[in-house]
Amino acid sequence: MKITGGHLPKIAGRPLSTVEEISPPDKLYISLNRCGVNYKPVVKSGQKINFGATLAVASITGGKLSLPSPASGKVLIDEGEDKVPHRLIIETAEKDITTGTYDKLQPERVTSQTVRNTLAKSGVWPFFWSSLTDGTPTLDENEKPRAIIINTVLAEPFRTRGKVVLRREWKQIVQGIKFLPRLLADYGTVEIILTAKRDPVARMMYVDLAGFARLHFHPVPLLYPVENPKILSHALRKSDSSFKKDDVIWEIDIQGMVAIGACLSEGLPLHRRILALGGPGISDPKHVSVRIGTPFKHLLPQNYSSEDVLILRGGLLKGEPIIPDTDSVGYDDDSLFFLPEMKKRKLINFMRPGFNRTSSLPCFASQLTGASDSEISTSLRGERRPCIACGICERVCPAGLMPQVIHRYLYREAIDEAEAVGLDLCIFCGLCTYVCPSKVELQKQFKESLEQLRLEHEEAAASVS
Ligand code: SF4
Ligand code: SF4
Predict the structure, then answer these.
(1) Rounded to an integer, what distance in angstroms lies between the CA atom of residue 339 and that of residue 362?
(2) Which of 9, 45, 102, 176 is most buried, judging by how many CB atoms fall within 10 Å of its CB?
(3) Angle at 162 between CA 313 and CA 395, to 5 degrees
(4) Cα–Cα distance for residue pair 223/234, rounded to 1 Å
């Protein structure tokens, strides 16, 4: 399987491989928006709830998705100024019981519909990505994938490392894999994405999964954004000519597989996540295992100050800033990136050799020492400049685009020409923006232009009807 483009940013603050257990706080905060979908509460304020009870539901084609309670206790509905519920607060019970809630299923006996319903009820179903919907697959049994890709590689600095999860949760992952044939189309396959074939974790996988039929391994280079499901499904289709154009491919990451194993073989709802806390702005980068709903402030170092460090939810390239005082761990979180705020500009910085700075151009001394970037910060280090046509963005683009050409068309407001050279194929990985020596905000420009195109197409369709 060949992946084109990509780049591995070398950044200081890589989290340790050990996982620290964080005990749940007295109150958990559950957002009613998950991956852009709004869930409707099915509980009343003041109601007592058990671990795994359904808190809220959302409809999708073929059924309903649920948010399960990550703890027992009393639930309160938190409404915004508009009187619309936007989150639930769970005052956790003194005795924290997290035993199996659903029936334990047998992979050989269970039906496809039972697997689908159980994963939807337990909060696990949205971990699947489908090439048919470009998002969560439908719960309808008519959608059956020709292949399910299990991705163990997350290259963006610093998302939870696949190997950390594999070492810790291997038993549940294997349990989960046993159920996947129930979801596949006839002759469907399971495709495992991993890095080096020879390391001990990879060997453990080869040995333990040797008896599984129709399961293949694909070693890939550790280059961001190999974790993108569109990139993986495209590479899989290209590597195997037996795939037809309309064959559906699903993808799931390794924490999703842990949740499947725990749910179907042990009856556990989705209730915890492993998070990587990394980046140059944290003194003890590490992994933590944490209950869903835990306020982020519960995870921050004691000396944390929002004036010194910006925290991104997700990795360095795609993460979004959090509000540490109010935001909490969601069902899909896997990382916090601590990015130092650059408050003072360094004198004659452009003349420094750059032992601790990296660039896609060979212009810093770190090229010789192999050091990671510990000086990365929110500072742009100087003004934005026009595109210098260096071509680096094209070299790294995983979608095979020429971002500099699209940029030039959009700069001239020639949006149709930009579309003709592939603007709509952009996966918004942000790599072009990251490597650009002129700091051109390519990804932002492409996202805004595509949104404008979408609105224009909608208006045109509405005027015809
Ligand atoms: S954001 Fe789009 S154009 Fe830029 S590197 Fe990623 S896929 Fe390519
Ligand atoms: S990386 Fe930046 S400067 Fe270089 S070609 Fe692309 S847009 Fe232009």
Answers:
(1) 24
(2) 176
(3) 75
(4) 16
| Residue 428 in contact with ligand 1 by CB distance below 6 A | yes
What residues does each domain of the chain span?
1-23+107-343+358-379, 382-464
Lowest mean pLDDT among 66-70, 257-261, 412-416: 412-416
CA 218 to chain centre: 20
Q: How far is the CA of 389 from the centre of ligand 2 (A)?
A: 5
Q: Which CATH number fits domain 382-464: 3.40.630.30, 1.10.1060.10, 3.40.640.10, 3.10.310.40?
A: 1.10.1060.10
Token pair in block for residue 431: 């790599």
**CB 223 near ligand 1, within 6 Å:** no
Ligand 2, atom 4: closest residue by C-alpha: 390
- Taking CA atoms only, the protein residue closest to ligand 1 atom 6 is 429
Determine the atom of ligand 2 nearest the C-alpha atom of 407. Answer: 7
The answer to whether 353 and 365 are in contact (CB under 8 A) is yes
What is the model's pTM? 0.91
Evaluate the omega torsion of the peptide bond into residue 225 and state whether it is cis, within 30 degrees of 0: yes
Q: How far is the CA of 1 from the centre of ligand 2 (A)?
A: 28
Indicate which residue's Cα is closest to atom 2 of ligand 2: 436
Looking at the CA of 438, name the nearest ligand: 2
